[in-house]
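Quiz preparation item.
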């Protein structure tokens, strides 16, 4: 009986260092995952443009990836079987020659609502649409090219909240009544559709027979460091919480959970290598 493992991973603070966005400490584990034919699926708040650039550097060019906190799955390399199954569905879009399955809302609708609610109720907040590239660089530590890619939001709008906690609760309720949701990320809040990073794991389970036709069992592994990773971590068969220099471990309810001893990509490397070592007991010839 063949068990196919798939790794879903957050980026910032998990596979990428929180401060300098470095992934080099995780290179060994990334190479081992590739050697064992374990797909590594990026599942991030970042944009499609940002992840497209990272895929080559991480040697994950053909792997699916998930953007903007579960808002969409992108397939750089899609099988004819999967394409035939999804291309006539309303969630399917072809964007810049990439096959995209959309769970969320368009950024245009989110920004229009945000502008209106801010003007009507006077909430003290600022979002990506208010900031210049230079401001985003100062708030994130991104390079200019990275900041420009981060501005290419398609399904969400990050924002900073400067008002009271009471008014934040009120704002979240109004967003929910509109059919939107608010997630807290490592640096910003995110206004988006009613989606989480767990949506992608559900998609993979639903389409297991098309994605992995030779697999009898699909085992989903998730790695994250923050509260916006909780739904993904709880949905996974195995959750791995990565130690953060700025946050406590995410509060997960998954009984199959481990916690890294090291921070960010060092912790990612440590835990994925440990996972693959355990798998080699069952698949020694892989």
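Solution:
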């Amino acid at each position: 009986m063949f068990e196919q493992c798939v790794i879903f991973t957050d980026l910032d603070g998990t596979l990428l260092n929180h401060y300098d966005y470095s992934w080099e400490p995780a290179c060994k584990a990334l190479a081992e995952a590739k050697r064992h034919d374990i797909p590594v699926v990026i599942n991030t708040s970042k944009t499609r443009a940002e992840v497209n650039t990272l895929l080559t550097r991480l040697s994950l060019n053909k792997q699916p990836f998930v953007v903007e906190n579960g808002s969409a799955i992108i397939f750089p390399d899609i099988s004819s079987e999967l394409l035939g199954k999804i291309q006539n569905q309303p969630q399917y879009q072809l964007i810049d020659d990439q096959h995209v399955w959309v769970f969320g809302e368009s950024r245009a609708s989110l920004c229009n609502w945000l502008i209106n609610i801010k003007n009507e109720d006077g909430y003290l907040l600022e979002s990506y649409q208010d900031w210049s590239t230079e401001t985003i660089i100062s708030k994130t530590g991104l390079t200019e090219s990275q900041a420009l890619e981060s501005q290419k939001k398609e399904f969400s709008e990050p924002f900073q909240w400067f008002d009271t906690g009471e008014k934040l609760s009120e704002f979240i309720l109004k967003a929910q009544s509109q059919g939107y949701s608010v997630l807290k990320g490592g640096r910003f809040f995110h206004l988006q559709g009613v989606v989480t990073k767990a949506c992608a794991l559900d998609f993979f389970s639903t389409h297991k027979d098309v994605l992995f036709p030779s697999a009898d069992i699909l085992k989903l592994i998730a790695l994250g460091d923050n509260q916006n990773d909780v739904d993904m971590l709880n949905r996974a068969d195995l959750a791995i919480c990565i130690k953060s220099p700025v946050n406590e471990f995410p509060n997960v309810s998954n009984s199959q959970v481990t916690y890294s001893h090291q921070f960010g990509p060092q912790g990612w490397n440590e835990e994925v290598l440990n996972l693959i070592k355990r798998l080699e007991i069952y698949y020694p010839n892989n």
